[in-house]
Amino acid sequence: MVVVNYHDDLNEVQGDPVLAALLSAPAAAAPFDRIDWWRNLVKNCDILPLIAVATDGTQRLVLPLMRRARTIIALGNWYNFRLTPLATADANRPALLRALAEDLAGQAPRIILEKLSESDAAELAAAFRSTGWSVWQSVSDINHMLKVGGRSYAEYLAARPGPLRTTLKRKGSKVEVSLYRSFDLQAYEAYEDIYAASWKPEEGSPTFLRRFAEEEGATGRLRMAVARVAGKPVAAQLWTVESGTAFIHKLAHREDAKALSPGTTLSAALFAEVIDRDRVALIDFGTGDDAYKRDWMEQVRPRYRLDMLRPRWPGNWPIIVRNALRAATGRG
């Protein structure tokens, strides 16, 4: 018999040994799947979680959610690369997801989940449709990635676009690069100064990001680099590595140093570090179809949005009509 529970207190989640193991490394293979990430969101981003847990004996399936008015959405913010249902190895995923979808009907009339992989979107859509939800699926974002395929950095670099390799040859020697595999306060403060002088918008939650860097540095998962010109920090990047994947979280350069392309030199140093030293199999550049990502990445995969509505809820009827019209005209 499947039992569904909801938790807004992460200590309750941590108190279940099976859940605690599922939501910790190495079982949780990405930062966004760990209870530490969720705790950081709660503490530093003013987020109240709704952790939905389906249980059947030793089996667990977890969907990290939160409320937004009458709608339930994925737990996360702009720092999350993706959302995925998390399950123990012995879990009957279809059965647990169906039970979860059926029970969630009593929690909200509408659920919106974004940044889903194709397989997760299909699995979730099937579960919710089978329990009476009206489900609308669309592509909401794109994820650039690199499958290393056992190559060395030199082999990988040889396949990069000519202009990128020329930039590295012409300007790389003008930039000094420092690499860090643990948290370094001076390096991180340099990143904050660089970000403030970059083209990027105001940081969403500086406290969240620093705490994340400190935690990843303590576990050995942090990969950070700072580029300097004549001793002055001009570019910085923050990556993490775990379970064979390198995640590129943050990168920034000072606008007044743009002519030296310090970000390109810095990226090259970190690609070399994670390919040759960490031997990663995959490099994940997060969401967004920025043009510069195409120079470094070789594959793209869509990220999906599911808009799931209870069809008998009157407030949903205008939304269902709009979604149907979008689908009929090929826009949804």
Automatic annotation (TrEMBL):
It holds the Pfam family Acetyltransf_6. Residues 178-316 form the N-acetyltransferase domain. InterPro entries: Acyl_CoA_acyltransferase, BioF2-like_GNAT_dom, GNAT_dom. This is GNAT family N-acetyltransferase.
